[in-house]
Amino acid sequence: MSDIKLACDVAEQVRTICDKHGNNPGELINILHEAQHLHGYLPEEMQCIIASKLNIPVSKVYGVVTFYAFFTMTPKGKHPISVCMGTACYVRGSEKLLEEFKRVLGIEVGETTPDGKFSLDCLRCVGACGLAPVVMIGEKVYGRLQPIDVKKIIEELE
Amino acid sequence: MEEKQITLQIDGHFITVPEGSTILEAANKIGINIPTLCHIDLKGTCIKNTPASCRICVVEVIGRRNLAPACATRCTEGMVVKTSTLRVMNARKVVAELILSDHPNDCLTCPKCGNCELQTLALRFNIREMPFNGGELSPRKREITASIVRNMDKCIFCRRCESVCNDVQTVGALGAIRRGFNTTIAPAFDRMMTESECTYCGQCVAVCPVGALTERDYTNRLLDDLANPNKVVIVQTAPAVRAALGEEFGFPPGTLVTGKMVYALRELGFDYVFDTDFAADLTIMEEGSEILNRLTRYLNGDKSVRLPILTSCCPAWVNFFEHHFPDMLDIPSTARSPQQMFGSIAKSYWAEKMGISREKLVVVSIMPCLAKKYECDRDEFKVNGIPDVDYSISTRELARLIKRANIGFPLVLDSPFDNPMGESTGAGVIFGTTGGVMEAALRSVYEIYTGEPLQNVNFEQVRGLNGVRRATINLNGFELKVGIAHGLGNARHLLEDIRNGHNEYHVIEIMACPGGCIGGGGQPLHHGNSEVLYARANALYREDANKPLRKSHDNPYIKKLYEEYLGKPLGEISETLLHTHYFNKSMD
């Protein structure tokens, strides 16, 4: 079972989302979208609630959650970091940038720092190739970054 | 209204089929065998998997640009299909080669060797090398449970197990997770099957085309015990085994090999060869008495009695209601399954009679079932940590053992069971097919309830392979309403009705596997041919018809057992040795 127990009101809100979609198994993806928007991620307990509301096996829900890269089962950090691995950013060194983020934060891609402040992910092209390599932190876009800038950015956010 | 008919041409043959038929179905009708892999459609049951995901069955449809999957393409009027052009043959071969590129190349030591559908295709397509072996095989999970072995390295993602587990059995233990090369089939949150709602029915194993899902093999342990001079090893054989074992030795489905099986078991070195059918008769004595007891109290207005009473001889079914219907644990009969009744009596009554200690006695069962392996491992069926039934081996394992021991099965003579636990009535025999337990119970309940001899012991109205069957039996004016379901999905419908207060039955029989035990997860593989199941069921009814005794309560050794040891059905000793209780295993 998940280590963090869902707050009662969150569980209730998830049930409401399911009700809103008529508890229709065909609406599973939409329900997961809304649930993740609500809570930031989709812990096991939440998937169990959705499965029981929709009267489908929880293995089905988990199958969908793990199929789509958009869905996540780990809570995102307060500052979610996404390094662009699109072609332009990649050729201009985003891999080195990613390695530096991993080193400074001490986490792998898809993980969150133990203090919950930062999480690290990759993405493909935000349409700002002129600024390559690009990193998004929250809603903010950082362009033309060098590995040397990473430490400073993290310190500023902390 | 008559179905619309469609005429098409396949490999130059004209054929007329009902509208909606697939090319595969049409081709089968005229004996053109298009190779398939992911597809399975066990006609007459609800076992069906048609994702059209493997693309092995592609054919050429004239006028269509790309190749069409025969299993999922509907016939249209005037369609011209070619099933074996060079283009088709090459495409199939490449598809098979691609599947093999992510499949371990260890056929020699694979438990499915010789019975693997992928291996058969590789042979059929003349695959002699592996052109696509550049990438590394993705390592996937392995798991060994008491019943089932899961080796996901061998999985080809046909999704048959997922369809059976979710759509047919409605257990929902197995599903596809992740994507691409990371895909695997697993319980929710990639847990172990032992931590899921798996009932160990073994239907996933029964449909797995490769070696990804197989039975836990106990034959080596058995050989060790048989070779141990300090052990007395006895065996019981379930009814459905004798109707299927012959298939592994080239006999047509439905051949009864009871006598040969007993001979082979003696050759293997068992000290005594007994019959689970004896315990099936015993089950009827206990369960039948329970039915009568509950019914009488109910009719006398006892409000504490809940009906219907459900049979409890199927261990996967027991697991299912423990997981999914924990609020209804008081409805099923408390009678143990025949396997467990046998073990319990063998290690008490018989062992005492023979002067054999519990430690020295090994009770083995031959079962058509994989859940039986789990059942005999349940703690409540152990005394001082020693199980009543030490382990259970499936029909398939027995066949392998007979081959390994070099016993010329087709030629061996018939041999009779040993007594006292080898004598059985026809009622015990039909336990192996859906409706059989109900019919066996009715034969005894009728005579005991009415006090009159039953003229015709055949209750045709409870036979057949329909998923849910209902019948009304006239017991001298009282209308006994009975229901029969096989396949856990059908059972779920009945249970949900009862939970919602819509119950029309007094007694219900439930078997987890489609067809009952004859279609069990431990039986020779049917490879999607439901004729095999019909033939096995008919064989059991034939054996029943040929028995001098057809009613459980007429079994002389059962009578003797009650006189010498148990006292009476539902008596104190019977309650201890032959009844059980159930647990809430809900995951919520």
Automatic annotation (TrEMBL), chain A:
Family per similarity comment: Belongs to the complex I 24 kDa subunit family.
Pfam families: 2Fe-2S_thioredx (PF01257)
Gene Ontology MF terms in the entry: 2 iron, 2 sulfur cluster binding; hydrogen dehydrogenase (NADP+) activity; metal ion binding
Species for this entry: Bacteroides acidifaciens
Protein name (Swiss-Prot/TrEMBL): NADH-quinone oxidoreductase subunit NuoE
Stored SUPFAM superfamilies: Thioredoxin-like (SSF52833)
The encoding gene: hndA
Entry cofactors: [2Fe-2S] cluster
Positions annotated to bind [2Fe-2S] cluster: 84, 89, 125, 129
Keyword Oxidoreductase: yes
NCBIfam families documented for this protein: PRK07539.1-2 (NF005722)
Domain of life: Bacteria
Keywords of the record: 2Fe-2S, Iron, Iron-sulfur, Metal-binding, Oxidoreductase
EC assignment: 1.6.5.11, 1.12.1.3
Enzyme class per UniProt: oxidoreductase
Note on cofactor: Binds 1 [2Fe-2S] cluster.
TrEMBL record, chain B:
Location of the 4Fe-4S ferredoxin-type domain: 146-165, 189-218
SMART domains per UniProt: Fe_hyd_SSU (SM00902), NADH-G_4Fe-4S_3 (SM00929)
EC main group: oxidoreductase
InterPro entries the record matches: 2Fe-2S_ferredoxin-like_sf, 2Fe-2S_ferredoxin-type, 4Fe4S_Fe-S-bd, 4Fe4S_Fe_S_CS, Cytosolic_Fe-S_CAF, Fe_hydrogenase, Fe_hydrogenase_lsu_C, Fe_hydrogenase_ssu
Pfam families the UniProt entry points to: Fe_hyd_lg_C, Fe_hyd_SSU, Fer2_4, Fer4_Nqo3, NADH-G_4Fe-4S_3
Domain 2Fe-2S ferredoxin-type positions: 4-87
Keyword set includes Metal-binding: yes
Domain 4Fe-4S His(Cys)3-ligated-type as annotated: residue spans: 87-126
GO molecular function: 2 iron, 2 sulfur cluster binding; 4 iron, 4 sulfur cluster binding; ferredoxin hydrogenase activity; hydrogen dehydrogenase (NADP+) activity; iron ion binding
EC number(s) recorded for this UniProt protein: 1.12.1.3
Keywords assigned: 2Fe-2S, 4Fe-4S, Iron, Iron-sulfur, Metal-binding, Oxidoreductase, Repeat, Ubiquinone
Protein name from the UniProt record: NADH:ubiquinone oxidoreductase
Organism: Bacteroides acidifaciens
